[in-house]
Amino acid sequence: MNIRFYKTAVFLAAALFFALPAFSQENPAASANPEASPNPEANSNPAANSNPAAAGAIQQIIFVGLKKTKPAYAEGFLSDFKGKDAGSINVNQIETILQSAGLFSEIKIQIFDAAGNIIKENKSSAKPAKSGTPSDSGTRSESKTPSDSAALPDGTKPAASLNPPAAPTIGSPCILVTVKEKISILPMPFGMYSSDGLMGGFFLNNMNAFGRQYMLMGGGLFSETLFQGMGAFSKPAGKKPSKPGFSTSASYSLSTNRFENLDGEQLLKFHGSRFGGNFYLTDNFAPAFSARLGFHYLYSDFDNSVLDKLNMGRSSLSVSWRRKNWNGVFLSTSSLTGFTSVGYSTENRIASEFGYSFSVQQPVAQRFRVLFTNNLSIQHDVPYSTLQNKSAVDSAILNTKFHSPKMLQSSAGFEGAVVHAKLVTLSLYGIYEIVSVETEKVKMEFNHGINAGTRIYISALPMPALSFGYAYNFIHNRSQFVFSMGAGF
Questions:
Q1: pLDDT digit string (tens) for 1-42?
Q2: HSE on the CB side for 420, CA within 13 Å?
Q3: Beta strands 406-420 and 368-380: pairing type?
Q4: Across-strand partners of 205?
Q5: Residue 247 three-state SS
Q6: Which of 67, 243, 247, 478 could cross-link 234 (Cys pair, CB 3.0–4.6 Å)?
Q7: 3-class DSSP state of 178
Q8: Regions of the chain short of the pLDDT cut 50
Q9: Nearest to 405 by CA among 443, 446, 438, 440
C-alpha cells in the first residue's frame, strides 16, 4: 500500500508535523466570507428584523462552555462585530469564523437586542416548533427576556449541554456563544503495514496549549527502513499585522531511500542520516491575506559514494489568499498561494524553487460540493537528494517514490456527504487528475488518472479530515491505495 499525505512527506507523522503547525497559524476571522450565506437572514427571527435599526450596536461578546480556551482569546475571533448593529449581523459569518478556528465541536450562537430579546440565532441552536406551530426554517418564533428566565450569573460553570442559558440581564445588545470544545491533548499511537513493511510510532499533540491555540507536538516513527524523531511548537498570528505568529520544528532521521521512475523501476537507493530545522514567521497583513517567511537548515550524510554530504541553508516566502464558508455540513475553502525559496548548499550552487497552489471547494447543495485544484512546483539546481515528490503538487496518481524538479497538476471532482451526524461526517469523493512531470527520459510527460474514496470528519478531534481512497494512473497502468490527512472539512 502506498501512502499519500497532504503537502507533506508520505508518512502520517510528517503530515502532523508540517500540516498542523501551518493549520494553527491561520486566522479564522480573516478568511471568513462576509457573503458566506446565500440568504443571511434565513436563520434569524423575522419579527425582530422588522426594525433592525432598533436592535442597537453590539456591546458584548460572551462565550459559555469554555474549559481550556481563554475567554479573551475566544472573544477575539469576533471582536470585529463589536459596535455593529445587531440586526444587520450575518450569523452564518460568525459560525464560519468559529468553525474555521478548529477549537469547537458544537457551536450555538444567539444575538440579543437591548431589551434581552433573541433576534437572531444559528439553525443548530433553534428549538423545534411546538406541535401545531409552523417553524421558520427551523428557527425560533419566540424570544426570551430576563423577566421570564434566570439571568446568566458571573462565574457560572460551563454548560454541560449546548442548551443556551437565559439571556443576560444587561441593557445592551450582545452576542452569546455556547460551545463544546474539541479534544485538545491528543496521544496518537500509530501502526500500519505497507509494501515497505511494518511501520509504527507515537505522537503527543497539544493543539490548544495555554488556552490560546499554541501547538506543541513531539513523537517518532520506526520501520525496517526508517527511524525518525521530531518536535514542533507554534503560536498563531493575531488578527492585526502588528501581531505576527511563529512556528519552529526540528527532526532527525536514519533512513533507507529509493528513487523510482513512474513504472516503479528503481533508479537509486541510498542510506543516510538527516537533521533538519525550520522557523517561520506568519502575518495576517490584510483581511483574507497572510504571508509566511521561513528559514530552513538541512544536514544529510549518506553511506553512498553516489551522493555527497549535504549542508544546506534556505529561506522561503509565501503569500496566501483564503476564503471560507460553513454551510452546516462542509467548511469549504477557496485559496490561492504563491511561494518561492532560495538556498545555498555545500555543493557550491544556489538552489531555487517557486510555484503556486490554487484550490476551490464550491457547495452546490448542502451535502454536495465540487472540487478543483491547480498546482505548480518548479525546482532549479537543487541537490538530487532534495528533489520533490508528488506531495509538492498534491497528486494522488503518481508513484510515491518518484521525484521530479518540475510538476504541474490539475484536478476536478466532487464530494458528497452520505452520513452527517453530531460526532462524525462521512463523505464519498471522486476526482479526475492530470499531471505533467519532468522525467529522466523526457522533459515533460503527461499523466492522467482517477482518485476515489471516502473521507471521515470527526467533530471532536482538532485535526483535518482523514481520507481513504484508490488511485489509478491510466498512462502507466499502475494503481495504489491512498491515505491522506489534511483535506478541508
A1: 333 333 333 333 333 333 333 333 455 665 665 544 444 333
A2: 11
A3: antiparallel
A4: 186, 217
A5: strand
A6: 247
A7: strand
A8: 1-25, 35-53, 125-161, 164-165, 167-168, 487-489
A9: 438
Listed in sequence order, the residues at least 6 apart from 246 whose beta carbon sits closer than 8 Å to its beta carbon are: 234, 235, 279, 280, 281, 282
C-alpha cell at 226: 526508517
- Taking only the tens place, the pLDDT of each residue in 43-81 is 444 434 444 446 789 999 999 999 999 999 999 999 999
Query: Nearest-5° angle of CA 400, CA 405, CA 411?
Result: 60
Q: Which residues lie below 8 Å from residue 437, measured CB to CB, with a gap of 6+?
A: 262, 398, 402, 404, 406, 407, 408, 444, 445, 447
Q: Are 439 and 445 in contact (CB under 8 A)?
A: yes
The SS3 assignment for 91 reads helix
Strand order in the sheet with 118-121: 60-64, 174-181, 104-112, 118-121
CA quadruple 442, 446, 452, 458: dihedral sign: positive
Q: What are the beta bridge partners of residue 230?
A: 219, 251
Distance between CA atoms of residues 318 and 338, nearest Å: 6
Place of cell 544546506: 312
How far the first Cα of the chain sits from its last, in Å, is 25
DSSP-based three-state secondary structure for 489: coil
CA–CA separation, 111 vs 27, rounded Å?
23
